[in-house]
Write a structure and sequence with these properties.
This protein has 584 residues and is of the alpha/beta class. It contains 19 helices and 15 strands. The strands form 4 sheets. The chain has a 5-stranded parallel beta sheet with strand order 7-6-5-11-12, sandwiched between helices. A 4-stranded antiparallel beta sheet has the order 1-2-4-3. A 3-stranded antiparallel beta sheet has the order 8-9-10. It starts with a helix and ends in a 9-residue tail after the last helix.
Length: 584
């Protein structure tokens, strides 16, 4: 049950009623009509702009039309008060009798707040870390964000494909191969000394070197690089991808598709060449010379006549080169081919999760998608800002294994999956985040994941306590939904019911905005409402959840507790965090 959908329908019914009375013309359109919570909770429970949207077509002042709407709703079921605010907003305060309906829905609907599947396909590409080493804490935040976003979209009714773009072509994997080859020589007993500059120094490649020695023996030791490089590269990439998939699995993250960059430029199918050919046919490329960029000159800038994509026609700052002076494709050309492939697979809605260092790449990729789809496809790029690891307020910088950064697996091993996932989401993705190992172990309100899980554990404790007292109550969700919920009259109980009522809209809005952090924020507020009610019960015995001499009140309060626990569990499920039944 989404109360805002309910009132939106009631507003459309009211528009029809005012048309039949001649207050509104028959041609009046309610396009743009919104129903949402008022910005100030003191202004009621529901607010609508209906009068302001329809006033012009009716030839009326918004305030006068708002009065007509207010008169229509006077005495209507579930409405206690109708007020007109500002230039013509209509604010509704719902009656106490309305909130138990929401509570019943939360108990009766198996997945309260879940959207109806609507078949809209959406592709979410996230992580896509280069397969050149272990994943670090920066990858961790992007991985958790992308996975939670996919969960959120699926919960809201979208058909979601989770995709990882494997950068297994280009110079960086050749560096990986040379680094692995050095470890291969080491595995054969050679003293390799200090790792040369430009190669990857971490110990994580030692097992790759050993596997190469086991696989090839001395066979490739004296081969020229042109022969051993592709053999080592393939083995090293496979080993790194196994490790990356293992790290992701430890975070309960699995992708549907791993798309290889090499597929775009293979001998069998030159997808990049096909993409450029399409751009030529559509007159979206030309031979030209780019102006020198302001500030620091990028490595890929060349002062020459070259093939350029008309990116500025689609909102980019400059046109973009597609072919390098040596005849190879630019990285951007490969990315264009990759997104063309997504479009050809039927994805007209795409989301890419990029690290903070890719912020300058957003406009060009959105321009590419517009051009390649004829303006039909959309691409939303979510930028993930850096994570600063702390321990008791002091920075954590080094890793024994990687040699330069803290790995994802080390973070998960120390902090745990649930705390890592929740805290990576308890801040908007485009804001920097401090992750303090000491903080996530605190048992206090300052530790958000503990605070939310503790609320769920307390709910479970109350329900177990009721069962142990043998109160002869049927505490199943279906039975509790039929109890006298009008007994929930305390202000804290009503506040909790109102918060539960917001969950379906919260899911819908967060999914539309591609912002899973909203779910984490909501759960923290819901937990706060529940803890507040719990504390009031400790101070006032008549507000305790279990009242041994009043089965009716007890059943109503158990219904509220169960509904709270279900919503917390659903929200945590979206975030990929376990709903703890007991706190250790």
């Amino acid at each position: 049950m989404n109360i805002f959908h309910d009132f939106e329908q009631r507003m459309h019914t009211a528009v029809d009623a005012l048309k039949s009375k001649g207050v509104l013309p028959a041609t009046a359109s309610s396009a743009g009509l919104t129903v949402e919570p008022p910005r100030d909770a003191n202004h009621g429970d529901i607010s609508t702009n209906a009068a302001m949207v329809l006033a012009k077509g009716a030839g009326m002042k918004p305030v006068d039309l708002a009065r007509a709407f207010a008169e229509h709703f006077t005495g209507a079921e579930g409405i206690e008060k109708v007020e007109i605010a500002g230039p013509g907003f209509i604010n509704f305060t719902l009656s106490h009798a309305y909130w138990p309906k929401v509570l019943r829905a939360a108990l009766q609907e198996e997945a309260f707040g879940r959207g109806v599947p609507h078949g809209a396909k959406i592709n979410v590409e996230y992580v896509s870390a280069n397969p050149t080493g272990p994943m670090h804490v920066g990858h961790c935040r992007g991985a958790v964000f992308g996975d939670a976003l996919c969960n959120l979209l699926a919960f809201a009714g979208y058909d979601v494909t989770r995709e990882y773009y494997v950068n297994d072509a280009g110079a960086q994997v050749d560096v990986l191969a040379r680094s692995a080859y050095l470890r291969y020589r080491e595995a054969l007993g050679e003293d390799i000394g200090e790792i040369p500059s430009g190669l990857y120094p971490g110990d994580y490649l030692k097992p790759v070197g050993k596997s190469l020695a086991k696989k090839f023996g001395h066979d490739i030791l004296n081969m020229p690089e042109t022969q051993w490089l592709p053999l080592v590269r393939e083995t090293a990439i496979k080993a790194m991808m196994r490790e990356i998939k293992g790290d992701l699995k430890a975070l309960n993250i699995e992708h549907d598709v791993f798309f290889s960059e090499r597929k775009l430029t293979s001998r069998a199918s030159d997808k990049v060449g096909e993409t450029i050919a399409q751009l030529r046919r559509d007159s979206l490329v030309y031979e030209g010379r780019l102006e020198p960029p302001k500030g620091k000159t990028p490595e890929d800038w060349e002062d020459r006549e070259q093939l350029l994509f008309k990116a500025t026609d689609f909102g980019d700052d400059v046109d973009r080169p597609l072919v390098k002076s040596d005849g190879s494709y630019t990285y951007f050309a490969g990315d264009m081919a990759y997104h063309r492939d997504k479009i050809r697979r039927g994805f007209m809605d795409m989301i890419n999760v990029f690290g903070a260092d890719h912020g300058g790449y957003v406009k060009r990729m959105q321009a590419a998608v517009k051009a390649l789809s004829g303006g039909k496809a959309t691409l939303d790029v979510k930028i993930i800002q850096m994570v600063k690891l702390m321990r008791g307020g002091e920075p954590v910088k080094m890793s024994k294994r990687s040699g330069s950064f803290v790995t994802l697996s080390e973070v998960v091993e120390e902090a745990g999956v649930g705390p890592v996932r929740f805290m990576m989401l308890f801040r908007k993705n485009d804001a920097p985040l401090e992750f303090d190992f000491a903080k996530v172990k605190e048992q206090s309100r300052d530790n958000a994941v503990f605070y939310v899980q503790y609320a769920h554990a307390r709910c479970c404790s109350v329900l177990r306590g009721a069962a142990e007292l043998a109160l002869r109550l049927d505490a199943s969700p279906a039975a509790l939904a039929t109890t006298a919920l009008d007994k929930l009259t305390d202000a804290a109980e009503v506040t909790l019911m109102k918060r539960i009522a917001q969950f379906p809209r919260l899911v819908e809005q967060a999914a539309q905005a591609h912002e899973p952090h909203r779910v984490a924020f909501y759960l923290y507020d819901l937990a706060g409402d529940f803890h507040g009610l719990w504390n009031r019960g400790k101070e006032s015995p008549d507000l305790r959840f279990i009242v041994e001499n009043d089965a009716t009140v007890t059943a109503a309060r158990l219904a509220l507790v169960m509904a709270t626990s279900r919503v917390i569990a659903l929200g945590l499920g979206v975030l990929g965090v376990e709903a703890a039944k007991e706190m250790r």
